[in-house]
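Contributing new records

If you add data, match the layout below exactly. Sequence lines come first and carry their own label; structure lines follow with theirs. Keep one chain per record. Anything else will be rejected by the validation script.
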Amino acid sequence: MTNSSCKNVYAVLNSTEKVAIGTICVLIALLSLLVNVFILAVIGCSRNLRKHPSYLFMGNLALADTIACSCFTINFLEFHLSKPGNSFEKTQYLLKLGAVTMAFTGSVGSLLVMAADRYHAIYKVSTYKVLVTRKRALMAIVTLWVTAALISFLPLMGWNCPTCQSCSDLFPYVNHNYLAFFASLVLVVIVLILVAYALIVWMAHKHEANLSAEHPELARMRVDIHLAKTFSCVLLILLVCWLPVLFFMMTDVVTKGLSRAQQKAFAFCSTLCLLNSGINPLLYTLRCRELRAALKSLVAGLRRCNGCSSQLVTNTSV
């Protein structure tokens, strides 16, 4: 099968759909990049934040989402919007797909690492600072990216199909077994995130129940209810953004062939993963008091620098 005919199997969007999905991708990607790069700048410019493992994990999430936004948007639009006759070489495609997969795997993996970090911060308060040090946090981040790279580039290393038409109806040259492996892995990670946050809420509920029993006269905000609402929102967005894509992947694995309508639906649902990368900073980072304080400090510093520059220009002119 030639590259051109291979591309025709997967390039299922018409001109109107191409315009729609291109607009959606560009808008989401620009907003996501802006927010994530801003988070990286705030954490990078704050010496205090860089010392804390929790903010290293947040910075790693922002880095993963920044890479995901860039790689996904460029490669996704090139794949769906370019002409069918363009080059569709196997190694080149699997290399690009591996980069996108690695970025999203790093993003979802970072969410799991952050959930585990919050769990230890609450469950093992007395030993948290001893267990979770800056050095161990950096080692965890490196391990995460190495694991993500190994998982993502397995198709390039040989776990693929000889022709684009013999395997997945969603990804050229991708083996059904690998697709099932990757989708199952992401589902397991999501379940582990859900379990970690459920345990955090449960422990907060036990703590609040004990306080209420000891001091029934005190009127106070229920921390467990607040956490339950927050984590419910986090998990709902995670599930909405990832489950449609995982559903189509597993459908591709268990059925003999997907229709063009299903392929089109998968293409549009894929943009939800991109949207998740833009929402993550709002859910996980900008809600933190210390990071907002660092942000205010950075903005104030930039204003002072701008004021000094304006004053210097005025004095020079005079």
